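Section 3.1: Structural characterization of target chains.
Under the original work plan, the team committed to producing a structural model for every single-chain target entering the pipeline before any wet-lab resources were allocated. The record below documents one such target. The sequence was received from the expression subgroup and is listed exactly as submitted; it comprises 249 residues.
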Amino acid sequence: MAEYDLYYWPTIPGRGEFARLVLEAGGADYRDVARLPESEGGGVQSMLGIVEGRGTHRIPFAPPFLIHHDPIHGEIVVAQAAAIAAYCGERLGLAPQAEADRQFARSAALTTADLVAEAHDTHHPVATSLYYEDQKPEALRRAAEFRSERLPKFLGWYEAVLANDPSGGDFLAGGALSYADLGLFQAIEGLRYAFPRRMAAIEAGFPLTLALHRRVHAAPRLAAYLASPRRIPFNEDGIFRRYPELDGD
């Protein structure tokens, strides 16, 4: 049995990727359960069974969720992407040590979760139960506001945090690589996929943020993961989707 079992949809990076990056960068002993064959206890049904209340009384609302087989405390269930990233980061050496920095890292991860949710809502502004094609007029309007107002505001916040960091501005919290930086890295990757024209037009205005993205990409364990088949490509079933009509300068 692996120490960590991660449960998420096996064909999309989605919110599960924020947990995968921390587990990979931290060198964790983990299984990506739904991607395993059913003969090894994997598959989507094993994940859905837990969501439906089979196997644990601590029922997660939806994937992603993590089960930590802790040798001292037993089975620990953690759900929500930012919470999983923080939990794993604080156990794998990817979190600040000082309490003030630890709390700020959590705040940064939750801010990134807000950014990801708003990016998702550009193509599903009415309801997640509807197809994109059922809400295209609303999506066009929502995406235009996201590109012009919300995206620069989020990126500007990261830039201000780095510019004002007393440790030099290489990382978001604590002066070293943390799960908060990994989350920002994934968000930028997704934004570049979904909004390539808009990101190309505005990236130069956020040099510290993009330098952090490059720094994270070069981290040895992470670089190896990104080049491996374990890294699931972005596609039009996930959070970040490339619909050219939603992009623009």
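The longest strand covers residues 65-70.
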